[in-house]
Design goal:
Chain B: InterPro entries: Gaa1. Chain B: This is Gaa1-domain-containing protein. The structure holds 3 protein chains of 3 kinds. By secondary structure, chain A is mainly α. Chain A is built from 18 helices and 1 strand. Helix content of chain A is about 65%, strand content about 0%. In chain A, helix 7 runs antiparallel to helix 8. Chain A is globular, with a radius of gyration of 21 Å. The N and C termini of chain A lie far apart (about 50 Å). Chain B is built from 23 helices and 16 strands. Chain C is about 15% helix and about 35% strand. Chain C contains 10 helices and 26 strands. Classes of the chains: A mainly alpha, B alpha/beta, C alpha+beta. Chains A and C meet through helix 2, helix 12, helix 14, helix 15 and helix 17 of A and strand 17, strand 19, helix 10 and strand 26 of C.
């Protein structure tokens, strides 16, 4: 008990110390940690323009949601002293919600495990570094965990509201609506082992309606803040049209840097739709365990979204801690781990070789993003198969399981 | 059984049967591979290390060529003549006068500045002070910018000479180099054909002066440097030529091109210099400060039988080997082989012309012509040199190894290490119970269950849990401990008292070994599951480190690939003596890293130039050996 | 006879052509010379875009027809175009006679709004027409380079009131379009059509000195076309050619003695008959050792030659008999500008950089300046990182007013227009971090690795910083900074197919596996008899 408290205390203290360390400020410029849509510098720029009477949404630099603009220009003024605390607060929120999810899923009063989860969330480099770079991606992570946590504990309105906020920060989150609503209806209990069909689909309609009302209200608020609806082209529009080609660990940027102009719209549409097609099948397949469906969908969105950061992969890996029942059925954890090890070293290295040293060219970094995508793909696929495998029980001697 | 029947059989199969067949096939393949893994691994080791040995062979290298067509080296008439040589001699006289009444740094810098001003080149003096943890470096640079007529002054070429020339630790005054700079400035001012500004820099000291100048020029002044912002500036610097001309006259010009952290300039620059020097200056170009015709490794040759001793093949091999080793010695430590090495970090292609001191035949006339022609070549550039000519190893001044010719060696070794890791990972989790001999050929025909029995019963396995978390914690402990050690090594207080510093570093290393032994209980430590998992993780990290450093700093990774070899072959014999040897060898190899850091002043390099050799060795290299040493230590303690 | 005829004609239509040449020795031994050819079309005025049509009959005598037609076609009230090569050295050369010395091509126009076609379409039209007229590639002055700065480019003439409104509103009827192309090179192919605009071409008068071989070897040279409307006078077109030559470089003995012959290797054979006035002025240095021949009559320290009563061939020579070769350290002339600006953009990497500008106030009284930075969209400013210092001390109070238009990706440039207060004899230094955008591979120029030239920034000294807008009331001389070269990150241009291939493969593999896993059914099969 005391040890846990102590551990948590030291964790938080260490996080704060790191966050205030001047040498780590350059992380804010790192393309892997914050995309143009989550960059702290751009957020500051937007607030500066906003406060000096220039409409931040006329230019191309600022692409954050007006809600953040309002929040940070009024309630929580950002400065080198406040920012670390704010970001730490969001991380703690995320960590606590994670523990909550685990608790409400397994019903186990295993505090040690909670502590491990929290520690993992706070120390996982994929989460830690973006948060040190003050990328708003960590806010998005916290919100998505919060939404799921509320959904797990059946607080439907809170969950949907959190989800609506998240949608305003990053549009792909809209894909989570279905699994989260399902989660609200079916509860978080682990039923991977005991699949049962879900019949009352109609109950979804009011939830989704409620969600869209929240989104509507928030949009109206946003428009009143930004003085017009043009903000939506800069924030949500960016997800569909990819105006900023700054490299990130994702699959989009180089594809659309090298894309022939007359094919651009077609492939933009293809990529966006491709990201969406997984939602319904997965929600149907895992209708008995919507939390798992949400988990897999989170992973897929993190892999296929236009402006991903390491934080997205981090969220997926961290959430794995919530599903201990699938561990024994994971087939290639070592491969995934090694791929992640390599890509997490190659990404910054090749970025430097290309853009700072000038010895390598863009293909180097592109290759490393492919490795990263491979790592995430393996992780998702492995988790998915394990999730299905759980339902089929242990292997009797002399029998093998195959898919035909 | 005929084809037709076969096809019929295949068509008549139902899903289940075909699934069974698929399963068998997969198992056969996996078994095939698994059984040959060790063989494959051995082959990869052999291939890798022999490849390293074969690097000096001429068959692997190829002749240099000019990739960027805009360069057009040696295509111009040069106008540098004896009158310019005379002016150079006059400057030299004044410089020698300064030397003889050992003038202060300020006087020297002011002299250069005044001379440049007399030519109508706007120039100024840049004083600087580096405050390092062990010493304070101060100096005065003088530089001038000749802004090219009709050009908007957005690009620039640097021509530089450091006041001191330093080779093999011996410092000589680079007076003729400085004189060349001044004479060149005066001469080049008279022409209107320059498309880029020319920046003439005479830096104090050997390296620190140029570092101060470049930091100030690029507005990237580090915390430990105090220097005013430059008032006379120009545009983006694309190329830079650094002159070292210490002797009275010279016989050949040596190229020094290695930069900080193993950065290399674009090869086109050096190649075009090579062409210019051969066609315009008629001066033999060589690598480093050994004459082209020199015969290295004399003592080694003497060991050879007289037939081989002077055999052209052997001779050529040894020469190339010498150059490669020289190159490796610079790169591994991340050291720059001259002031030019500081340019690369700002994406400026630069190298040093070293006029090898001799009784003749060449002097100001030759070097002036070569410089003029080379400058005209770089002046032709319309774009930054960008072709992928940044990864190469010169074997002689005229031949080099492409990346494809040298990289595979280390990659083979890295893959082998990774296989070792994976094997260890499998063995950690799976335990083989019994083995039945492989069934004979004939009943491999069709998918009868019987056959599968044999296939299945070939090897019986049981699983056991792997202590993954514990292993990771143990590894993190060793890296963390050495990270703390690195902090200590970079504190000025500790650096004043070496014994205290290395004492505490050793203590930290020891603690990272002892703590796990003390804290974790005996059974777990001794269990093969833990030991094999630790081995697996440690080896896969090693392999990753090898493959990644090979792209960043090939020489370093080559050295590492040799150093890490012992960790790849854990001795799990019960012989205590062998284990002790293993333990000691690992610890010795680990401490070798420290010794290298100490003897090469790598910490100072880190402070001054940000050379990451020292932190890398401390935080990555040593812990890997500590992890390797942990296993024999446990076994020795507990058995 | 013919000459005299069109001389009369000139009188009849009261078009007036005057030419002048100003020669000024400089501190560093170079000599600056400015040719000015002015043609005034009396009582004419630019076309009102709404009321009168393009094909109203026109009558031209010595006013350049080709130019006049362009002005009329696009209803341009005021047009300025400069083509310069080289970097003007304000420290040693002082303030130029003709202020517009920005490197490369620069063009701006004032146009009245209204009429069938929009301001922007007319801007495009006049741009292409003028680039055709002077053989300059101005057509690349696309929307990505076009701006409408508030302060730095005021109309130099008057703006006719086209719709009866009160005076303040009249200004609102006019719009400014400005663009500059720093990478444009100036050479003979621009000079030849330029000379064609002159009544005497290069056959006589001052224009006969414009000898390409010499001019384009000068350290600095530039030409300008300035059209404006003056109330109660008419439309005035002013053609200028400015050059800075270096006699020291030419002379074997490194002396700075210069003459028309040595600078242009020509002497003036005969005057231009249609020129109503033709003058050469030499701003002679005040020191005694300076000698000028032939003798001229001095007007307050300036030697003036009138080509009307000069004897030909006329070759003016400036000599310093006392000195054998020029010594830069002890130059007797001292010319330096009251305000100097240095601007550098240093980039740690290809993605980020820092812009550092220092504005030096040489005068001993406080001055106000309007600073103008117009950079293409791919350079994005981080305004919140703007730091203003004097002698290292932060002085945010010196930023008097700030107007800023952020860039729009793949379209409009940034316009950054602050007004600063300059303390006397101090250097105001401000820095700002910038981020470089990543371009599509089709947006890169053929020589992508060279980088992109950024147009020079402009500094305009202003008397009273609080005058009202929208039309800038400040008529003082602009000061140009040097241009900048930034290298942007480049993709591999040979990759499109490979990238599409590889990424698509990866995505397809992922989809296929998910699809398999979700759709195919699991079955237990017996692999061994239990």
């Amino acid at each position: 008990m005391f040890l846990r408290r102590l551990g948590l205390g030291t964790l938080i203290a260490a996080r704060l110390l790191l966050a205030y360390h001047p040498a780590l400020l350059h992380l804010q410029d790192d393309a892997q940690l914050s995309s143009p849509l989550t960059s702290y510098k751009r957020l500051l720029e937007g607030i500066f323009l906003f406060q000096n009477g220039v409409d931040p949404y006329t230019g191309g630099t600022f692409r954050h949601s007006p809600l953040l603009l309002a929040l940070f220009s009024t309630a929580f003024p950002l400065s080198s002293t406040t920012a670390p605390i704010i970001w730490l607060a969001f991380d703690l929120l995320g960590a606590v919600s994670l523990a909550k999810i685990y608790h409400s899923r397994t019903q186990a009063r295993d505090r040690n495990r909670n502590f491990v989860l929290v520690a993992f969330y706070l120390l996982n480099p994929y989460q830690l570094l973006p948060s040190l770079a003050r990328s708003t991606a960590s806010i998005e992570n916290a919100l998505s965990l919060l939404a799921s946590a509320f959904a797990c504990s059946g607080k439907s309105s809170y969950a949907l509201l959190a989800l609506a906020f998240l949608t305003h920060l990053s549009m792909p989150a809209v894909l989570l609506t279905l699994p989260i609503s399902l989660l609200i209806l079916r509860g978080p209990h682990s039923s991977l082992a005991t699949p049962t069909a879900f019949h009352s689909w109609s109950k979804l309609i009011p939830l989704i309606a409620e969600y869209s009302i929240y989104v509507g209200i928030l949009s109206i608020t946003a428009s009143s803040i930004a003085g017009g609806v043009h903000w939506s082209y800069k924030t949500w529009g960016a997800f569909l049209t990819l105006p900023d080609l700054t490299p990130n660990p994702g699959l989009w940027w180089y594809f659309f840097t090298e894309m022939f102009d007359h094919f651009r719209p077609f492939f933009l549409a293809t990529f966006s739709i491709h990201m969406a097609i997984y939602v319904v099948p997965l929600s149907l397949k895992f209708q008995h365990d919507p939390l798992f469906a949400a988990y897999i969908i989170l992973g897929i969105v993190g892999l296929l979204k236009p402006y991903p950061t390491l934080a997205d992969a981090g969220l997926f890996l961290t959430l794995l801690g919530v599903f201990p029942e699938i561990y024994q059925y994971l087939r290639t954890p070592i491969v995934t781990a090694l791929l992640h090890l390599h890509s997490s070293l190659l990404l910054p290295l090749f970025h430097k070789l290309w853009l700072s040293q000038g010895t390598g060219n863009a293909n180097f970094f592109y290759a490393s993003t492919l490795v990263f995508a491979l790592a995430n793909g393996f992780a998702i696929l492995d988790a998915l198969q394990a999730g299905l495998r759980v339902g089929l029980g242990t292997r009797p001697d002399g029998w093998e399981l195959v898919q035909i | 059984m005929s084809i037709v029947q076969k096809v019929k059989a295949i068509l008549s199969r139902d899903e289940i049967t075909s699934a069974k067949l698929r399963l068998q096939r997969r198992r056969r393949i996996t078994n095939f591979l698994v059984q040959r893994m060790t063989l494959l691994r051995a082959l990869l080791y052999v291939a890798g290390y022999t490849w390293l040995l074969l690097l000096p062979l001429p068959q692997l290298g190829r002749g240099i060529y000019i990739d960027e067509n805009a360069l057009q080296p040696g295509q111009v008439n040069t106008y540098w003549d004896w009158s310019n040589v005379h002016s150079a001699d006059l400057y030299l006289g004044q410089l020698e006068e300064l030397r003889d009444r050992n003038a202060s740094k300020a006087e020297r810098a002011d002299f250069v500045r005044t001379e440049l001003l007399k030519m109508g080149i706007s120039s100024e003096v840049q004083p600087y002070t580096f405050a390092l943890s062990t010493e304070v470096l101060t100096g005065q640079n003088a530089y001038g910018v000749l802004s090219a007529p009709r050009s908007s002054g957005t690009e620039a070429i640097v021509i530089s000479a450091s006041w001191i020339s330093q080779r093999d630790g011996i410092e000589t005054l680079n007076l003729r180099g400085v004189a060349t700079i001044l004479a060149l400035a005066k001469f080049l001012k008279g022409y209107s054909l320059w498309a880029k500004d020319l920046i003439f820099v005479v830096t104090d000291d050997y390296m620190s002066g140029m570092h101060a100048f470049l930091s100030a020029y690029h507005d990237a002044v580090p915390n430990n440097l105090a220097t005013p912002p430059l008032n006379v500036t120009s545009g983006v610097i694309w190329t830079a030529l650094n002159i070292e001309y210490p002797g009275h006259s010279f016989s050949e010009i040596g190229i020094f091109h290695e930069g900080l952290n193993a950065r290399l300039p674009n090869q086109d620059l050096i190649n075009s210099f090579h062409v210019v020097s051969a066609h315009t200056g008629l001066v033999q170009v060589t690598l480093y400060d050994t004459l082209y015709g020199a015969r290295p490794f004399t003592e080694l040759r003497n060991l050879l039988p007289s037939v081989l001793k002077d055999h052209p093949i052997v001779d050529g091999y040894l020469r190339r080997a010498r150059n490669i080793l020289q190159h490796t010695s610079f790169q591994t430590l991340g050291k720059a082989s001259g002031p030019h090495g500081l340019f690369h970090q700002y994406r400026i292609d630069a190298f040093t012309l070293y006029a090898i001191p001799a009784m003749g035949p060449h002097g100001f006339h030759a070097i002036g012509k070569i410089m003029e022609s080379t400058l005209r070549t770089t002046n032709n550039l319309l774009e930054r040199l960008h072709a992928s000519l940044f990864f190469y190893i010169f074997t002689t001044s005229g031949t080099f190894l492409k990346i494809g010719a040298y990289l595979p060696s280390v990659i083979c070794i890295s893959i082998a290490t990774m296989i070792a890791a994976l094997q260890s990972w499998v063995n950690a989790g799976w335990q083989q119970i019994q083995t039945i001999s492989v069934p004979d050929k004939k009943d491999k025909e069709d998918a009868s269950s019987k056959e599968i029995v044999t296939l299945d019963a070939l090897i019986q396995w049981t699983t056991r849990p792997r202590p993954v978390l514990l292993t990771i914690v143990v590894m993190l402990l060793s890296h963390g401990a050495m990270a703390v050690a690195w902090r200590i090594m970079s504190y000025s207080f500790f650096r004043q008292i070496p014994w205290l510093m290395y004492g505490s570093v050793g203590l930290l290393a020891l603690s990272s070994l002892v703590l796990p032994v003390l804290l974790v209980e005996r059974e777990i430590l001794l269990s093969p599951a833990f030991q094999k998992t630790l081995k697996a993780f440690s080896l896969s990290l090693t392999s990753t480190v090898l493959s990644i450093t090979s792209l960043l700093n090939f020489s370093l990774s080559a050295v590492l690939s040799i150093a890490f070899l012992p960790t790849n072959f854990p001795i799990n014999a019960n012989n205590k003596g062998l284990r002790t040897n293993e333990l000691i060898s690992h610890l010795v190899l680990a401490s070798l890293g420290l010794i290298l850091i100490d003897s090469q002043e790598s910490v100072k390099d880190w402070e001054l130039f940000g050379v990451w050799f020292a932190p890398f060795i401390t935080i990555v290299y040593i812990p890997l050996f500590l992890q390797a040493a942990l296993i024999p230590l446990i076994n020795i303690l507990y058995t | 006879m013919i000459l005299s005829c069109d001389f009369l004609a000139a009188q009849a239509y009261s078009d007036r052509f005057t030419e002048s040449l100003v020669i000024r020795p400089l501190e560093d031994g170079k000599v600056a010379s400015l040719f000015t050819f002015t043609t005034l079309m009396a009582h004419a005025s630019g076309r009102d875009p709404i009321n009168d049509s393009e094909d109203k009959p026109q009558h031209y005598t010595i006013f350049p027809l080709s130019l006049g037609q362009i002005l009329r076609e696009y209803a341009i009230t005021e047009l300025h175009l400069t083509l310069n090569a080289g970097k003007w050295d304000y420290l040693h050369w002082g303030t130029p006679e003709d202020a517009d010395v920005g490197s490369g091509a620069e063009m701006w126009a004032w146009m009245a709004d209204g009429g069938a076609d929009s301001i922007d379409s007319r801007w495009v039209g006049v741009r292409n027409a003028v680039s055709g007229l002077l053989c300059a590639s101005l057509s690349s002055l696309s929307i990505q380079r076009t701006t409408s700065p508030l302060l730095a480019f005021p109309p130099l003439g008057d703006l006719p009131v086209i719709r009866p409104t009160n005076q303040t509103d009249a200004s609102k009827q006019y719009h400014l379009r400005h663009a500059s192309l720093p990478s444009e090179h100036v050479c003979t192919e621009n000079l030849t059509p330029f000379l064609k605009l002159l009544p005497c071409k290069s056959s006589s008068g001052l224009a006969s000195l414009l000898n390409p071989h010499k001019l384009f070897d000068a350290d600095w040279h530039g030409m300008g076309v300035h059209v404006r409307w003056l109330e109660r006078k008419g439309v005035e077109v002013k053609l200028t050619f400015q050059a800075v030559v270096d006699p020291v470089r030419y002379s074997p003995t490194h002396s700075r003695d210069a003459s028309l012959g040595s600078m242009f290797d020509r002497a003036i054979e005969k005057p231009c008959p249609v020129a109503a006035e033709s003058m050469i002025q030499v701003k002679s240095p005040t020191d005694a050792v300076f000698h000028l021949s032939p003798d001229a009559h001095m007007e307050n320290g300036i030697a003036v030659y009138d080509l009307a009563e000069a004897e030909y061939p006329l070759d003016i020579s400036l000599r310093w008999p006392a000195e054998l070769s020029f010594n830069y350290l002890f130059s007797s002339v001292h010319t330096s500008a009251p305000i100097r600006v240095t601007r550098v953009l240093r980039d740690a990497s290809q993605t980020h950089g820092r812009l550092t500008v220092s504005i030096i106030n040489e005068s001993n009284h406080t001055q106000y300046v309007a600073y103008l930075e117009t950079v293409p969209w791919f350079i994005q400013f981080y305004l919140h990182t703007l730091r203003i210092t004097v002698d290292g001390e932060p002085r945010p109070d010196l930023l008097h007013r700030l107007s800023y238009t952020p860039a729009i990706p793949h379209a409009d440039p940034t316009v950054f227009e602050p007004i600063f207060t300059l303390p006397p004899l101090k250097a105001l230094r401000f820095t700002m971090e910038v981020e470089k955008a990543f371009l599509r591979y089709t947006e890169h120029p053929p020589d992508a690795q060279r980088g992109w030239d950024l147009p020079p920034a402009v500094v305009l000294p202003i008397q009273n910083p609080d005058l009202p807008f929208p039309i800038s009331p400040y008529k003082s001389q602009r000061i140009y900074t040097s241009t900048l070269l930034v290298d942007l990150p480049t993709p591999d241009f040979s990759m499109p197919y490979n990238v599409i291939l590889m990424t698509s493969t990866l995505v397809a593999l992922f989809f296929a596996n998910i699809f398999n896993t979700l759709t195919r059914r699991f079955v237990w099969i017996q692999t061994a008899v239990a």
